[in-house]
DNA sequence: GGTAAAATACACAGAATAGTGTATTGTCCC
DNA sequence: GGGACAATACACTATTCTGTGTATTTTACC
């Protein structure tokens, strides 16, 4: 690992240019910063991170094309020594855990200022972990958890189930979904029921609200 | 109105500090910028805008305590000469129209870079309007519309209807809602049907998605 | 006092969903 | 090869929604 004393090359990944531009400007003032790259979606972030000489990635979680979680996994798979700080709008326990599980070294909230960003950057470059106090205090975060899901005692949704949820949210009936996915109506119905049972929800309306709150749509 | 040649005092309102910090840094490089203030919610933005000598407010739409729309209205009511640029994550036609109706002078998306921010700032300070090309091209925006609703040919939801929507999103059935609101089941059902008809939605699941997207929950 | 809109209420038929339970296949991993 | 899980499929009943109407009573505004 590079020492913190030599210039640190940074990749900023966020679909909102105003934010990448803003963070760039914040970082440019620091003497220890080397080259700054920016990416506007997860896929671009992975490409740049693998192709260029990057020391630390500041990664937004919600991005088009490929989300931050997936991007973190791929980067860490190829270049585990690259440090990654996840940045998000909300501090949802399950999201935080998933990001850490995926290999993120730090996790900060967008409502924390530049001072904290720099603190986080310093820590992760030294090989430490950094999590915003707001997040680690309020939420039950297990840094060493093997199984992310166990944290909340919830059974995870399967990919198929999430697919079904999206159709439900779009207002499709079981019949329509069955047609689109070449399934029998009863199968779709079973998925729907299993989903409601897993999430302990009463009906599809509540499910869509849950999905919206958990960024499943 | 002040000329664009003298220092322009800016207020940046956004609940995410990283963004206010970032925009500050972007603006600080410009010679024409005077004092920069920041606010982290709508209420704070209104207070600062009314108390300080502000020429232009860069206002995020989604903020806690008081949202951007309300803040724009209040500022324009007291100090109509203060220019306001709305900044948002998504480019939703109805939101854009509401902001313009409320008095915003510009509307840009967070995924547009600093160049566009500066262009917008220049334009609104000269008394012109500025709307991101992405937004004005893709969406049908009427700058001179009196009635915002008419833009999309949509009938507005009544307060009672919005109340019903919230209960639906929480997974309550017509019966339960009727009990809670001391109504007959058929009345709740009528409201539900009227809502679906107004919004041209097929079922409650789609309604909840709509509600989530339009920040009704 | 008239008009418009909102909130309330009902009928009736057909469609869709929720609750509970069972069962078969395939796949991945140890 | 056995265990766990995902995906598929079905039965049966009860409840809830959806679609298409109609109609009365407030409330708000001109």
Q: State the CATH class of the largest domain in chain A.
A: Alpha Beta
Measured as a percent range, the helix fraction of chain A is 40-55%
CATH architectural group of the largest domain in chain A: 3-Layer(aba) Sandwich
Indicate the low-confidence ranges of chain A by residue numbers.
Answer: 138-153
How is the biggest beta sheet of chain A arranged? 6 strands, parallel
Biggest interface: A-B, 41 and 42 residues
Q: Structural class given helices, strands, pairing of chain A?
A: alpha/beta
CATH topology of the largest domain in chain A: Rossmann fold
Number of domains of chain A: 2
Quick one: overall form of chain A?
elongated
Order of helices and strands of chain A: EHEHEHEHEHEHHHHH
State the strand order across the main sheet of chain A: 2-1-3-4-5-6
Oligomer: homodimer
State the fourth-level CATH superfamily of the largest domain in chain A. Answer: Response regulator
Description of the structure:
The structure is a homodimer of 217-residue chains. The first copy, chain A, has 217 residues and is of the alpha/beta class. Chain A has 2 domains: 143 residues, Response regulator (Rossmann fold), CATH 3.40.50; 59 residues, Arc Repressor Mutant, subunit A. Helix content of chain A is 48%, strand content 14%. The two termini of chain A are 38 Å apart. About 7% of the residues of chain A have low confidence. Chains A and B meet through α1 and α10 of A and α1 and α10 of B. Chain A binds a DNA duplex (30 and 30 nucleotides) through α7 and α9.
């Amino acid at each position: 690992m590079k020492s913190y004393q030599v210039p640190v090359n940074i990749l900023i990944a966020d679909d909102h240019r105003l934010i990448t531009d803003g963070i760039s400007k914040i970082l440019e003032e620091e003497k220890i910063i080397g080259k700054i790259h920016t990416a506007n979606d997860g896929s671009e972030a992975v490409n740049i991170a693998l192709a260029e000489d990057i020391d630390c990635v500041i990664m937004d979680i919600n991005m088009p094309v490929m989300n931050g979680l997936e991007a973190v996994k791929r980067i860490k798979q190829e270049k585990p020594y690259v440090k990654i700080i996840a940045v998000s709008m909300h501090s949802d326990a399950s999201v935080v855990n998933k990001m850490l599980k995926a290999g993120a070294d730090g996790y900060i909230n967008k409502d924390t200022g530049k001072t904290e960003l720099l603190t986080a950057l310093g820590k992760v470059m030294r090989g430490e972990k950094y999590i915003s106090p707001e997040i680690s205090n309020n939420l039950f975060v297990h840094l060493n958890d093997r199984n992310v899901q166990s944290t909340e005692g919830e059974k995870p949704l399967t990919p198929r189930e999430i697919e079904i949820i999206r159709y439900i949210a779009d207002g499709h009936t079981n019949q329509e979904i069955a047609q689109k996915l070449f399934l029998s109506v009863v199968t779709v119905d079973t998925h729907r029921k299993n989903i409601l049972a897993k999430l302990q929800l009463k009906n599809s309306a509540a499910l869509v609200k849950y999905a919206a709150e958990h960024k499943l749509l």
